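Inputs:
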Amino acid sequence: MKHVNKKPGKQEPRWQTKTSGGNFVDKFHAYRGHHAQALFSSLGRLVASRFSSAMTIAVLAIAISLAAGFYILVVNLQQLAGNLEASNQISLFLKDDISEARTNKFANSIRQNPDVQEVKLITKEQALAEFQSYSGFGEAIKALEKNPLPVVLQVQPKNSLENEQALQALLEDFSRSAEVDFAQMDMQWVKRLKSIMEVARRGVFLLSLLLGAGVLFITANTIRLELYNRRDEVVIAKLVGATNGFIHRPFLYSGFWIGFFSGVAAWFIVTVIMLILRQPVETLSRLYDSAFHVLFLGFTETLALLLISSVLGVVGSWIVLHFQLQQLKPE
Amino acid sequence: MLRNVSFHLERGEMAFLTGHSGAGKSTLLKLIALIERCSRGQVLLDGESLNLAKDRQVPYIRRKVGLIFQDYKLLQDRTVFDNVALPLLIAGYGHHEVSRRVRASLDKVGLLGKEKKYPAVLSGGEQQRVGIARAVVNKPPMILADEPTGNLDPELSAEIMHLFEQFQQVGVTILIASHDISLIAQMNHRILKLDHGQLVGELNDETR
């Protein structure tokens, strides 16, 4: 050991950067054993401070379940919207005083329109019969002296007419005809619903990103507290030659456990909510003669949920270790 | 702040570093343990310049140097065994090797049989022995001790110093910072004296 006033030499020092002692197999067992020890001791610490752990995990679980809950909501709505076929069909409600001959003539004139694929005529009588069979107002309608329903022409534009503006022009064209009381695009609301679904899907994605970031920071803060509580241990470990990897390991495992348990708790929250909602939703759906069934988180989705929450936990603790461990120097 | 400090310790030599508070004893030890880096000059350990050591090499260099502190720096929530085993776990030793070496190390400091106790129930002298056992368990070629007897009464202090002499006899290089002049003067070893960061005097067998 020397301490001299001399410029340092240029050659690279030959410090051995491998652990000393023991053969390779022994080392491997020790390494594996150390990982297992870090895995279970971090779990043990989580259990030892069960009150604060439970609170942290509860907060994380609520954040994760919000994201997962909105996701499953959108999945269910998409299933609902998926049953509906968006079409370009236009209904023309004709004026009441139009004769049958004039109605037929008008229908034929529309058939000649190059943009129209097909025209279907629904007479007052057909409309009444249909209305009676669907609405359950049969008796009440029978009581009416006069059929209040108009003649309807169902116009199916050519499929090539996908352009929204062209469709709109056609619709306006029809509504200007003298015979037409009013014209309506039947399934436009389905399109609107689908657009709303797209907005909702993106909204859920963005919300999930935000909540994920929240999870990351909450985990980071929890690990920062743990690091602070165990700073003596960290400093001593550094003094006796611990590498950063050795010091990181138990904290990374803590992050993993926190994330994993939050994911499990979030899964339970979402599943319980879906179980509570299932019965009323399916009753409602039966009233609408719909074959709608509540979808739960599937196997892949559950796996993804657990994986994402665990990864967020590990990344959250890594961030803290990366930025805070530098400050924890001996002395 | 250290200036004009130049000395060489032979392999297996034991030396004391003395001087008033703030003379730079701790700083000098920190330079060797790479807790601090020197801005000028250089520190050679085992023929290698510590100035060139990269951050990721620091842990491996520290494994060659056993550190002993005035406040022992033991983990209060771990048993004596676990405290002593820490450097071995860090170095990646297997279970049996750890157990064997920890017991051997505790045997050397006279604490065999207290492995399962917690530091808090031990006396100051015993806690420092645990600290020493931890420092030597990895068989480092060098031991640095910063005021190892600072919290101990004279009788215990002398015992601790004799313990260090035993390690020197098996070839370990030892540097002990201490301001306990009366204690170190009784012992027949080289004494380096620091004053305001400068090496002002050396006492050895010839000049004594």
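Chain B touches chain A through 49 residues (CB under 8 Å). Flag for discussion at group meeting.
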